[in-house]
Each structure stands twice: as structure tokens, then as C-alpha cells.
């Protein structure tokens, strides 16, 4: 969900207003995901690198997560969405951690749409965390294969990523789901996240559906 800051700057607004505008588009987009038959979707909300932002911005983002959890979780729950969070929870403020745990508990039995929120998430960190757990479990190195490794990722049940949508025109991966995107297709748009509409979401899915995926074959 990139481009909130630029969206705000273009309107002479503080960056926090851009993040707030970015939250506003979530409900219509998740509704569209349901209509399109999307089974699972991950929102990259806060990376392990985002702590490097000014403290005021980090604080306003954490406050916004809390507010968004209060506002949107009951609504998502009613729509049958199952919420899961991926990332390192330890460093998140206690209030955010509580909200994350509550949201997972509340929505755990829903089955219409799986919504993953990447919060204090880093792809390399996820791989390191998996390796740590594998070592702690004392796995035999010769028995380790890709399927076994994948079971140690934050959300082992998540299907392989089909499509990555990157807003605001950046042509990079930014430490997002490194393991899971091995064969993902990309849709990059200049549109800033707060302007990303259900119509464009549909166009992204259409463009994905028209592609031929060969996965290294012919
Ligand atoms: C993405 O928007 C939101 C978060 C990382 C939380 P940015 O804040 O990165 O927006 P730009 O890149 O400055 O426009
Ligand atoms: Mg950015």
C-alpha cells in the first residue's frame, strides 16, 4: 500500500492524512476481493524497515492501526473475513498486539476471505525466524526440503502468492513475502494507494487472468 505520503504531499496535507486516506479505500477493496473470488490477500501495512521513519510518523501509524482495528474488525467479521497478522509482534506496542490477538480470535472461524496484514513484517526476517524454529526443533538437515521449510513460515497455510500489486510506481519488492512470491506475477501501477479503486483492482485481476504462467517450463 505505497504512496500515501505522496498523496498527502500533493494536497499540502501532513503524511498522517495520507495514511488515513489509505485506510478509507480498504473496505471497498475488500468487498471487491470477495466479489472477484479472491481467496486470500495480504496487505503490507508496516515493514521492519518502517521503524526508521520519524517517531511522530511511526506513532501516528500505530495509533491509526489501533483505530482501524476498532473500526474495521467488527465489520470484516460480519462479512466473514478471517484476519491473520504476519510479522514480528514483539516490537509492536502492547495495545496494537492486544488488538491483533483479539482480531485473530474474533475472526478465526470465518471462511469467506482470508485477510493477512503484514505488520512489522520483513521477508528476510520471516525466513530467519523460520530457520531459527527449524533449528530449535532439531530437524535433520538432510530431511529439510522446501515443503518442510514452508511449514515454518509465519502463515504456513497461506497459498502461494499469485499476484503482487504494487502502487505508486515503485519497481521493487521491498522485502515483501520473499519466499512466497517466487513465481508471483506483478502488477505495477502509478496510482497512489489512496486512489487505488475497485475498478483498478478489477483491471489488475483481469490482467493477471490473461497471462500465461510457465513457472520455468515452456
Ligand atoms: C505507504 O505509504 C504506507 C506505509 C508504509 C505505512 P508511504 O508512506 O510509503 O508513502 P510515500 O512512499 O511516502 O508516498
Ligand atoms: Mg513509500
Which term fits the overall shape?
globular
Spatially, the strands of the biggest sheet line up as 1-3-2
Which CATH first-tier class would you pick?
Alpha Beta
The CA-CA distance between the termini, in Å, is 33 Å
Count of domains: 1
- The sequence of SSEs as H and E is HHHEHEHEHHEEH
Ligand types: 3-methylbut-3-enyl trihydrogen diphosphate, magnesium ion
Based on the coordinates given, report the CATH architecture. Answer: 3-Layer(aba) Sandwich
Please name the fourth-level CATH homologous superfamily.
Answer: Decaprenyl diphosphate synthase-like
Task: Characterize the largest beta sheet: strand count, sense, and whether it forms a barrel.
Answer: 3 strands, parallel
Number of helices: 8
Structural class given helices, strands, pairing?
A: alpha/beta
Mean pLDDT score:
97
Fill in the CATH topology: Undecaprenyl pyrophosphate synthetase
Helix content: 40-55%
Extract low-pLDDT stretches: none
Describe the protein:
- It is a single chain.
- With 218 residues, the protein is of the alpha/beta class.
- It has one domain: 3-Layer(aba) Sandwich (Undecaprenyl pyrophosphate synthetase).
- The protein is 44% helix and 14% strand.
- It contains eight helices and five strands; from the N terminus they run αααβαβαβααββα.
- It has a three-stranded parallel sheet with strand order 1-3-2, sandwiched between helices. Strands 4-5 form a two-stranded parallel sheet.
- Helix 5 (94-107) links the parallel strand 2 and strand 3 (113-121).
- Helix 2 (15-24) packs parallel to helix 4 and helix 3 (26-36) runs parallel beside helix 8 (198-209).
- The two termini are 33 Å apart.
- The mean pLDDT is 97.
- The structure holds 3-methylbut-3-enyl trihydrogen diphosphate (IPE) and magnesium ion.
- 3-methylbut-3-enyl trihydrogen diphosphate binds next to helix 1.
